[in-house]
Automatic annotation (TrEMBL):
The gene is Pop1. Signal peptide: none annotated. Residues 4-99 form the Pop1 N-terminal domain. GO terms for biological process: tRNA 5'-leader removal. It comes from Helopsaltes ochotensis (Middendorff's grasshopper-warbler). GO terms for cellular component: nucleolar ribonuclease P complex; ribonuclease MRP complex. This is POP1 protein. It holds the Pfam family POP1_N.
Length: 291
């Protein structure tokens, strides 16, 4: 048995030498490992990049980069003033409202005030060309009982009479604001019984992680029955919500629907004079085909 163990160790060393360092360190299934490691605290999609360069902290149910490990303050300042600096703000929660415009505006007017500035009904915001920001209050309670600041953007109008509104809130305020929105629109019934499709069970995750950590060069993974294994999907959820809870609600009387889109719609902030140049070089407009 001792000889067999030595032989196995020797074979393992020989096999590792056949691949370059980058290939040996590569994860076979990044998504499986990604899901496995973020059971307690949700990771942003840029987590691995930040974890190599930042001191990470656990806040609001997320694992976030807090401060750089190297003295890169001058480089960041230079990027902000002369080039472009990108920040990942995907930990902010996105609440989506769908329904008739007049119904949406009628109830939203109850949780904000024109005394504080431009609100949801301002024409420049309704067109969808600009993002707005305001403070929300409990229904009909202004100037008392402030819930907190939010930003919002309307989806531009189309042929349908229904509108779509995205409200971005800090994760610390998300539950209170979501509760108030469900109350004013009377959205108590789940739109559907939700076990979010992209969620994988812990058993599936364990199997995938075992495959990841196993030694060998098999690229096609098979399960116990010998069939091709189904690829693991990314967990959708956030630090303020259990992935198995409902994430969408609808009002039976008005048809207004509220959906929690946290971590489904990512958000990045670009700072610096070359921000627009970076965006125009990165994003290419699709050609619109008219029938």
């Amino acid at each position: 048995s001792k000889k067999q163990a030595e032989k196995a160790v020797h074979q393992k060393k020989e096999q590792s030498k056949t691949k370059c360092r980058k290939a040996r360190r590569r994860h076979i299934n990044l998504v499986a490992e990604f899901n496995h490691r973020q059971r307690k605290n949700i990771w942003l999609e840029t987590h691995i990049w930040h974890a190599k360069r930042f001191h990470m902290v656990k806040k609001w149910g997320y694992c976030l980069g807090n401060s750089p490990t190297e003295k890169s303050y001058r480089a960041c300042y230079r990027a902000m003033t002369k080039h472009c600096l990108l920040q990942d703000l995907s930990y902010y929660c996105c609440l989506e409202l769908k329904g008739k415009e007049n119904e949406l505006l009628k109830q939203l007017a109850r949780i904000c005030s024109i005394d504080t500035g431009l609100t949801f009904q301002e024409a420049c915001y309704l067109s969808g060309r600009y993002e707005g920001s305001l403070n929300l209050y409990r229904a009909d309670r202004y100037p008392e009982d402030m819930l907190g600041p939010v930003t919002f953007i309307w989806k531009p109008r189309d042929a349908s009479e229904n509108r779509q509104l995205w409200i971005w809130v800090h994760p610390a305020l998300k539950q209170d604001i979501l509760r108030e929105l469900k109350a004013i629109f009377q959205c108590s019934e789940p739109e559907e019984i939700c076990i979010t499709e992209p969620v994988t069970t812990s058993i599936q995750e364990e199997k995938q992680v075992e495959i990841v950590t196993s030694i060998g060069n098999k690229r096609k993974k098979e399960d116990k029955e010998g069939e091709k294994a189904v690829p693991v999907k990314k967990i959708i959820g956030d630090g303020t919500r259990d992935p198995l809870q409902s994430y969408s609600w609808i009002a039976r009387t008005t048809g207004i629907a509220i959906s929690d889109r946290s971590m489904e719609i990512l958000r990045y902030r670009l700072i610096g004079p070359l921000s627009h140049s970076v965006l125009t070089e990165t994003l290419k407009a699709a050609s619109v085909q008219t029938v």
